[in-house]
Amino acid sequence: MIAFLALLAAVAAAGWWRARRRAQEDSLRQARVLSGLREKHTQAIEEHQHQLETLLDSMIEGLIVLDNHGRITLSNRAAEMLFGFSRQMVGGSLLEAVRHHEVAAVAARLGAEAAILDHEIRLEGPPLRVVQVNAVVLRDSAGTGTGSLLVFHDLTRLRELEGARQEFVANVSHELRTPLSLIKSAAETLLDGGKSDATALDRLLKIIDRHADRLTLLIDDLLLLAKLDSGRMELHPEPTALRVATQDVFDDLLRRAAAREVRLENAVPPGLIAQADPDRLRQALSNLVDNGIKYGRIGGVLKVSARALEDRRIEICVRDDGPGIPPEALERVFERFYRVDKARSREQGGTGLGLAIVKHAIQAHGGDVRVESEPGKGAAFYFTLPAAGFGDRSS
Ligand code: ADP
Q1: Which of 25, 86, 192, 373 is the Cys-Cys partner for 379 at CB 3.0 to 4.6 Å?
Q2: How far apart are CA 237 and CA 315, in angstroms?
């Protein structure tokens, strides 16, 4: 009996141990599953965090999030670049980071106002920047304010472009109005009886003719420039012999050169072949040679030369021995309507667009343009074009 009871106790004990071990194994398994889930969850949160940061950093607009105490909780790269602070400023105050009282004042106004939209501020430079700020109060799902969001849009480039466009429109109107008013007053004089005097008639008709030509030239240049500028101009590059192209331009301008007793010298080696659109190349060369004749010395020399550069490009140089260009104007001569001497340019029939056309025509080929000049020692305009082949470079 005792032995039987002992056996029962042993069986019960074994069952208890087995049940305990199973319970332990179960809880271990559960713990492993839970830790796996936690790890996955953490990974997912980190992944989201990374995605959010990438998204915010790829934004053009600057972004700063503040908590209820005005401390930065989040910022993106555009905001950091705009105000010149680093991500270490997270946790710091807005003013410390942006160092700009007007920005801090916009943030301070939030609360009294739920949103401040399209507020423009000027960040004193250098460089000076115009920035648009949009600010809103952030709320949780219960509607409680949790902080604020500031979004900054840099309008500097846009404002510059608007300014350039307005200046261009004003210049165009002025340039068109001048010949138009001269044509109009000549026509009025004729209508008022000017045609009875043969000399006056001839003079007035010549004025009308000259200024109508000037208008045509100006409109042609404007249209060409607009096409080049917008990229709508289709280029047809082909192997173009530079010496021949130079000679063609010289032949066209022979009479203009003779009128100012300018000797034209073609020093381009015959073997230099550029990969260029022949019409656009002729246009660029023609504008530069024409300028050399117009602004160079009476009785001077206008020389075109070229050389192959190491990187399969060719550099062409148009040089005159005239009075040259003052240093302060060198940067600006390629701008539309910029002239060193307005009266001189008009008198020579210039539109003020010649060098802007050269620049765009060459840039459309992937080339670049520059000018060198020392006052009194002439001007040298250089431009590059891709080479089609070098051929014979000996002469
Ligand atoms: P424009 O129609 O007035 O000639 P461009 O754009 O061709 O216009 O040239 C701009 C200005 O650059 C000219 O008005 C002139 O003042 C200056 N310039 C251009 N080429 C020369 C040169 N070879 N020598 C001196 N000044 C020049």
Answers
A1: 373
A2: 17
